[in-house]
Amino acid sequence: MCTWIIEKAEMEGSAKGPDGWFKLAQANVYYDHPYDAPLDHALVIDFVKNPDKPEGRVAVEISAESAKRLIESIQTALETGEREHALG
Amino acid sequence: MPKYEGLLAETVMFEGDDGDVINAYMARPLGDGPFPGVIVVHHMPGWDEATKEITRRFAHHGYVAVVPNLHFREGADSSPDDAAAVSRAAGGVPDDRFIGDADGAASYLRKLPYFSGKLGMIGFCSGGRQTYLAAGRMDVLDAAVDCWGGRVIAQPEDLTEKQPVAPIDYTADITIPLLGIFGQDDGSPSPEQVDATEEILKEHGIDYEFHRYEGAGHGFFATDRPGFRPIQAKEAWGEVFKFFGANL
Question: Which residue range forms the structural domain that includes residue A25?
C-alpha cells in the first residue's frame, strides 16, 4: 500500500528548481507509488529546501532498476573523484 | 430515448478537524436528488487527478461524492504532489485528523438539500486503511469499502504518534457493512494479511464481504499504471456499485 516509510539524509549543497537554485537541507527517499511516472512503484527522491514546506523541492521518480544504476554511477563517480582529486 | 445526463464537479471548502477549513473536490449529478453520498479517500501520493476522476465516476452513477484534501494543511496552494511530499516527510496524515476531516465532509454533505442522508466511504491504499479505521470510529457512515488498504493489522513497530492504533483494533466497533477489494498478487496487504483480517471480522460477527482477484496486484484500478487489470477492475467496480446500491 502507500506508506509513509521514508529515509532522510541531511544534505549540504544546492538544487535547481523552477525558481532557480536553492540551498538544500535534506533528501527524502522512499519506495512507493509515484505521482507522475507510469510505474506501479518507484524510488522517489525529494531534494528539499525545508522539510516542513512544499516550496523548494526537486523530485525524481525512477524505477528500482534505474535507482540501482544510479547508486552504481554515484559510487563510481565518487571513487573516480577520490582518485583524481584526492577526496575523502 | 436516453435520459438527460449531467454532473457538476467543483472545489468546495468546509470545516475539518479542529475547525480548520480545508478544501475538497465534490461531484454530483445535476438535479434535485435525493442522492446518497460517498466520501472518497485518496491515497498517499495525494489529492490527485485519478482520485478526482473516481469522484466524478460516483457522480455519474448517481452519488454526491466528495474527496477531502487530506494534505491541505501541508500545502494549501501547492500542487498535490508537493503537499504529499511534506505530509510523508512528517510521518503521514494523523489518524485523528483524518477522522476529523471525514466528519467535516459528512457534516458538509448533511447540509446539502439534495443529499439523501445515506453515506458511504471508499478509500484506496492508505485510504483503504483509513476507511477501515473510519468504519470502526465514525458513527455517521452506512457502508464502507476498503480497497487494498495495508497495515490494517499493524505490528507494534508500525505504530507511531500519528497512527497510534491499528485499525483492526476497532473491528469490534464496526456496525456497518464492509466491502473489501484485494489483488492476490499484492504484497501489502498480502493474501495472508487479508485472510487474517477476515478471521477477525468473522470473530466479531461483522457484516462484510471480501473479493479477491487473481492476476491483480496493488492498485489494479489505476488506468495509468502497468498494474492496471481491466477485467478484474471492471468486475470489482461492479461489486462496489452493487454494494453501495444495496446499502445507501
Answer: 7-62
CA distance B33 to chain A (A): 35
B125 flagged as catalytic: yes
Interface A-B, measured as beta-carbon pairs within 8 A, has a size of 90
Residue B225 lies in a domain: yes
Q: ipTM score here?
A: 0.81
Cα gap B49→B53, rounded to integer Å: 6
Nearest chain B Cα distance for residue A6, angstroms: 7
Is B45 in contact with A35 (Cβ distance < 8 A)?
Answer: yes
Interval B174-196: pLDDT, tens: 999 999 999 999 999 999 999 99
Question: Who among B91, B127, B224 is closest to A4 (CB)?
Answer: B91
How many domains would you assign to chain A? Answer: 1
Is residue B218 among the annotated active site residues?
yes
Into how many domains does chain B fold?
1
B125-147 mean pLDDT: 97
